[in-house]
Amino acid sequence: MASLSLGGLNVCARKQSVQSRNAAVERRNLITVCRFSVKTLIDRSCFETIDDSSPEFNNFAAILEQILSHRLKGQITWFGYESPRSFWDYIRVACRKVSHNCICSIENMENVNSSRAKGRAWIRVALMEKHLSEYISAALRDFKTTRRFYEDGAIVLGEEANMLAGMLLGLNAIDFSFCLKGEGLDGNFPAVIDYTPYLKFTQSSDSISSDEEELRTLGSSGSESSTPENIGPPFIMDENSWYNKCKRVEQKYRLTLEQKGYLEELVRLRETQLAESVSQNKLLLQRIEDMDLSHKMEKEQLEYIIVELQDQLTVLKNNDLRSRQELTTHLTNQWPSPGALDVNSVALDTLLYRKHSQQWDEKSFQSLDQLSGEVSLSQTSLDPGKEDTPSLLGLCGSLTSVASYKSLTSLKSSEYLASPTAEMTSPGLTPS
Question: Which helix (H) or strand (E) holds 83?
C-alpha cells in the first residue's frame, strides 16, 4: 500500500511538472512570436501603409488576442455553470482609469455586437491612437483586477507581461489605417496565428563544412579518374557556403537595425517625457515664485496697515486726552461765582412768595419739574445776556433734589409760612 501511494504521488508530481513546463513553453512561444510580429510590422511600415489587408497586422492581432485570452477565467452563472469570456471584459474594467480612453466609444458602436468583436475593434482604435502600450501598462498595474480575471500561469500575471508592454511601445511609430466595419471585426471565428513567416531554419557553418566534406568524399570514391568535371561540386559548395554566410550577416544586420530603430523610438519617447517633465517643473517653479512674491507683498501690506492703525490709535488717544482736558477746563470756567449764587437765591425767594390776594399758591409746587422750569425762567430773566450752560443746569437741578424738596416742605409747614402777611412784613424776607 505504501508503494502504491508513493507511486501515485510520483505520478501527480510528474503531471504537475509536465503541466508547468507546457505552460512555460506556451508563454515563451507567444511572447517570442509577438516580438517577431512587432518587428515585421515595423519593417513593413517602412514600405507601405499598414491596414486591414496587411497579413503582418492580421497575424499580430491574432497573437495579441491569444496573449490577452491566455488562461482567462470564465464567468460563473447563477446555475453554477462557467460560460466563456472574452478579453474585452477585462480591458473594459482595467482600462477605465486611462485618460481620454476609447472604452465608451467602443461600447456605443452600432455594428459591433459581440464581446470578441469589441475587443478587436479596441485593438485597432488603440493602434490608431498610438496608445496600445499605455492601455496594456495601465491594465497590468491594476493587479487586483488582473488577478480576478485570470488564472495562475497566465501571461499577464507573469514576468513576460513587462516585456509585452515594452514590445508594444515600438508600434507608436507606425501610422495605422483601419476600417472598423471590415471582416476582421467578426467575432464568430477565433483568431488563428500563422507561424510560417517566423519558422526559418538557418544552417550553422559547422554543419555546412561537414556536408561539404561528405560530398567531397562521396565524389572522390564514386569516380576513379579525376576529371575536370569532378572539380565543379566543391566550388559550387564553396559558393553556397559564402552565400549562406552573407545571408546570415544580412539577417544579423537587419536585426541590429530593427533594434536600433526600436531603441531610437524609445529614446525619443523618453526625451519627450523628459521635456514635458522639465516644462512642468519650470511652471511649478514659476508658480512657487509668484506665490512667494504675492505672500511678501501681502505681508508688507499687512505690516503697513498695522503701523497705520497704531498711528491712528495714538492720535485718537491724544484727542481723547485733549478733549478731557478741554472739558475739565470748560466746566471749571463755567462754574458760577458767589455773587451770582446770591442773585439766584434772591430770585428763588421771589418765586417762592407770590402776592395774589395775600394767599399762598400751593399749586405752583405740585411737581419738581415745574419748580426747575420756573427757576430756569428766573435765571433767564435775571441774566438775559447769558445763555444756559451745563453748569447752570446742574445748579438748577440741585434745587430740585430730594433734600431741597424736603426743605421746601418744612418751610411750607412752618409757622413762617402760616401767615403770608407777616412774612411779607418781615424785614429779612423783603426782596431787595
Answer: strand 82-83
Q: In this predicted model, what pLDDT tens digit does every residue of 353-401 receive, in sequence order? A: 544 444 444 444 444 445 455 545 444 444 444 444 444 444 444 444 4
Residue from 132, 179, 176 nearest 34 by CA: 132
Give DSSP secondary structure letters for 117-186: HHHHHHHHHHHHHT-HHHHHHHHHH-HHHHHHHB-TT-GGGSTHHHHHHHHHGGGGGS-B---TTSGGG-
Contact 174, 45 (CB under 8 A): yes
Whole-Å CA distances, 413 to 358, 359, 424: 17, 15, 17
> 172 near 130, Cβ under 8 Å?
yes
Comparing C-alpha atoms, which of 66, 37, 69 is closest to residue 54? 37
Cell triple for 340: 451770582
Tell me how crowded residue 80 is: count the other CB atoms within 10 A of its CB: 6
| Eight-state DSSP code of residue 82 | E
C-alpha cell at 238: 564553396
Model pLDDT, residue 64 = 95
The set of residues, in sequence order, having a beta carbon less than 8 Å from that of 297 and lying 6+ positions away, is none
State how far the Cα of 212 lies from the Cα of 235, in Å rounded to an integer.
10
